[in-house]
Design a protein that fits this description.
The relative contact order is 0.16. The chain is α/β, with parallel strands linked by helices and 238 residues long. It contains ten helices and eleven strands. The strands form two sheets. A six-stranded mixed sheet has the order 3-8-7-4-5-6. A five-stranded parallel sheet has the order 2-1-9-10-11. The termini are close together.
Length: 238
Amino acid sequence: MRRVLVTRPEPGASRTAQRLEDLGFQPILLPLTEMVALPVDVDGVANNAAAVAVTSANAVRHAPKEIIAALAALPCHAVGRRTAEAARAAGFLSVSEGPGDAEALADALAGGFTAKTIIYLCGRVRFPAFEARLKAACVLVRAIETYDTVALDHSDAAILARLSGQPVEAVLLYSAKAATAMQALAGRPALRGLFEETWFFVLSGRIAAALETVASEKLRVAPEPSEEALLELLRTWR
């Protein structure tokens, strides 16, 4: 059974582990980042807003209840199914499910919100293309950062124990920050031998670009930025 290192934080890590087991892999959980909630000022948050946009379920999960209550009556445009489910669970009354890609969601919203304000619930670490596309279409974007993503520091001993001192065949990477941390980790003298034959499966080209020292023949990029596409890539690699 091939061993696959899951580097994403909870709660997603456990869901991914279950999916890997269902596919016949042995998942090993080693989150390289964690999400922490940020303080948010609720005063006037919904002023002049026409809608809410969300490109990450974590932005909804980490939003204070007061923020959700202030925005719940506005139409909420979620990037995809999982984010839409999180928005409904949080209390948004009208949620539409987007195409699964942040830039495509921005393009879909651009025409209908010219000169209007969209509240963007997001993380501090994020790809700028969503906001840039809306601003280029003269949409006013008010970003509300509800969480930050911070790197976790694991000792050599902790990693060796987690991996039982054995190599892993594949690593799944969901963010550029995790990819940077993974590259540094794999380069440590005490751990280098565990990753010499490892394949790296990443969610996007931007994440792949962070793996500067990984040989291209050991790197696979999902054809679209979804876990379904990433796991299908892993399944067919077998």
